Amino acid sequence: MCHNHGVTYIEPGVVEVHSIEYPKLALGDRKCEHGVILQIVSTNICGSDQHMVRGRTTAPTGLVLGHEITGLVIEAGRDVEFIKPGDLVSVPFNIACGRCRNCKAGQTGICLNVNPSRPGAAYGYVDMGGWVGGQAEYVMVPYADFNLLKFPDKDQAMAKIRDLTLLSDIFPTGYHGAVSAGVGPGSIVYVAGAGPVGLACAASCHLLGAAVVIVGDLIPERLEQARSFGCEVVDLRKETPLTQQIAEIVGVPEVDSAVDCVGFEARGHGVDAGTEHPATVLNAAMMVTRAGGAIGIPGLYVTGDPGAREEAAKEGSLSIRIGLGWAKSHAFYTGQCPVMKYHRPLMNAILYDKIQIAKAVNVEVISLDQAPQGYRDFDKGAAKKFVIDPHGMIPN
Ligand SMILES: NC(=O)c1ccc[n+]([C@@H]2O[C@H](COP(=O)([O-])OP(=O)(O)OC[C@H]3O[C@@H](n4cnc5c(N)ncnc54)[C@H](O)[C@@H]3O)[C@@H](O)[C@H]2O)c1
Ligand SMILES: [Zn+2]
Ligand SMILES: [Zn+2]
Prior knowledge:
Layout: E1 5-11, E2 14-19, E3 26-27, E4 30-31, E5 36-44, H1 47-53, E6 69-76, E7 88-91, H2 101-104, E8 138-141, H3 144-147, E9 149-150, H4 154-159, H5 161-164, H6 170-180, E10 188-192, H7 196-207, E11 212-217, H8 220-227, E12 232-235, H9 242-250, E13 255-260, H10 280-288, E14 289-296, H11 322-327, E15 331-333, H12 343-351, H13 357-361, E16 363-366, H14 371-379, E17 385-388
Parallel strand pairs: 10-11, 10-13, 11-12, 13-14, 14-15, 16-17
Antiparallel strand pairs: 1-2, 3-4, 5-6, 5-8, 5-17, 6-7, 7-9
The structure holds nicotinamide-adenine-dinucleotide (NAD) and zinc ion (ZN) (2 copies).
């Protein structure tokens, strides 16, 4: 039998690389003849993983992490018709059946058939259906014909793998945040968060033709990274209110669109920067978005947060000033990004050099053994997107 190793969640603050089972075309006693086994070429660490690793979810010990997967097909199940062994593919982090009413409507983030406990599933994630994660050497991907995006040319793809690896999640997610906030030519946008999702969103705003993209965070190195590809920045540690900092850049204290690329572990602004205020970004977005504007919310909010400071927040209830959003007729868009809606056009944007997404998020390639250190550095706020290369296949 073949061996396999994967990044395993042990306890808050601790992940380790363990020997794990080689994947089968099955999930428990559910057969997956529609699936494939992938040899993983690249698999990225995500801010979504950090919520689990910080002990802010109900993730069980022993969970194999990893939902951002790119790989080579090495075995295909009996019912796979169009994907073949040898294909190099990007895997959307959402697992989708392609058969339910939501999948048929393009809402692959809330597929009805892949998770017995709620709509929507992902690899290696708490409450997301029990599918084994892909920060590993090998992984099983179900419904392969529907889910996988095959790269047209393997050599060309390997040469751009640092960019293409971002198609499994953060590039489509950042882009979706921008699209759902109504960003288009000439837009003035506020992006909250300069982590990899915020940076991918900011770069996507440029791709969509935004006139000004203002990125806010509390980590200077991450703001510097945003500035490196043409964004304006606001430092939220300052006591100057966000509205005033925005006015100093664009002349008025408001924007057309705002995107929350932070989620529920948000820190307060100014004097509150040392503590968590889970509704801060949502309230700030309503404050700065003009009447009639839209707010994209890819940042993650949970239904259970054992680490919340307030009782209500332990069940995901936050103090959101919805009256303000109502008064300004804001549109809100939440939820998992339906990756499949965007991954093919964004692949072409990479292949035809319309965007330098790996440069924007500052990709750093590491080995599987270095993953625990990657998690620690990312948690400290490194201005990097860590990409694990489990088989040493990524060219220098
Ligand atoms: N919807 C989806 O499909 C989807 C997909 C991927 C990631 N996500 C979520 O997107 C969020 C961002 O992911 P990431 O990988 O960039 O994570 P990250 O933790 O690296 O980045 C979050 C950034 O927000 C900053 N921040 C904290 N409080 C802030 C505030 N009040 N205002 C502005 N910035 C603030 C932090 O300093 C940090 O740099 C996470 O919640 C993640 O779970 C959602
Ligand atoms: Zn992710
Ligand atoms: Zn479905």
